[in-house]
Amino acid sequence: SNFLRMMFAVPAEDYEVPKVYEDAMNMLLILHADHEQNCSTSTMRMVGSSEANLFASISAAICGLWGPRHGGANQAVIEMLENIQAAGGDYDTFLDKVKKGEDGVRLMGFGHRVYKNFDPRAKLLKEQADAIFERMGIHDPLLDLAKKIEERALSDEYFIKRKLYPNVDFYSGIIYRAMGIPTEMFTVMFVLGRLPGWIAHWMEQRNDPDGYRIHRPRQIYMGETEREFEDWGTKAL
Fold it and tell me: Is 231 an active-site residue?
């Protein structure tokens, strides 16, 4: 509630945070909490293992979260829905392009590296989105479009076979949008949910009584074993 007040209240005007917004924000922060080793968390631990300070380690994790396949995914979902809506709302044609792999079209907000079936967070956020729109009297065509896409995808053998189900990013952006949070701020909100976990990882490393070593991943060379030698010294520059 206090966080929303700091974002939206203005001096000399009464501002009461809607209870449904407060509930949604609490849910979003909890559901975006750090869990297991993902791109940003692994980056946090990797950089922290060099004894980089907390601020540098968090900065590195944020860089990992910024990408559209990680923290920027909910922003990519909104942009995808806006593009479909601007093209007349023909989601069937869009999904057909996804299935055919045309023009590099991807269905954002579906699939997860760990949750191979339905992401349990997506179900909760869908219910929260419905609650916000109902109680606040908001109508957003993007929510209707998102539900139609989900319904079509969940009944399509192509997506079922590939275990492509809605994930946490599919509805979170719609909720942020309904609350008045700019699209460019979505990843920032993601970071707020992840920060407690990141800090805990950093402190765990620093407070390890047995000490800790710098992370040093190994790699396996998969290239050619023998190649013809070409003497570049005989070639004209």
Answer: no
Which residue, among 64, 68, 95, 88, has the nearest Cα to 79 in the 3D structure?
68
Residues in the chain: 237
Structural tokens at position 101? 């792999």
172, 128 contact by CB (below 8 A): no
How many domains does the structure of the chain reveal? 1
- Which residue's structure tokens are 């299935």? 99
Q: Contact at 8 Å (CB) between 149 and 97?
A: no
Per-residue confidence in pLDDT tens, the chain, 237 aa: 889 999 999 888 888 999 999 999 999 999 999 888 899 999 999 999 999 999 999 999 999 988 888 888 889 999 999 999 999 999 999 999 999 988 778 899 898 878 877 788 989 999 999 999 999 998 889 989 999 999 999 999 999 999 899 988 899 999 999 999 999 999 999 999 999 999 999 999 999 878 788 999 899 999 988 888 877 776 655
Of the residues 112, 130, 156, 231, which is catalytic? 112
Among 32, 119, 169, 201, the active-site one is 169
Which residue, chain included where needed, has tokens 């989601």?
91
Amino acid letter, 113: R
Is 144 noted as a catalytic residue in this protein? no
**What CATH number has the domain bearing residue 127?**
1.10.230.10
Q: Report which residue type is found at 230.
A: E
Domain encompassing residue 128: 23-29+38-206
Distance CA 225, CA 208 (A): 42
Rounded Cα gap, residues 22 and 54, in angstroms = 29
Residue 54 maps to a domain: yes
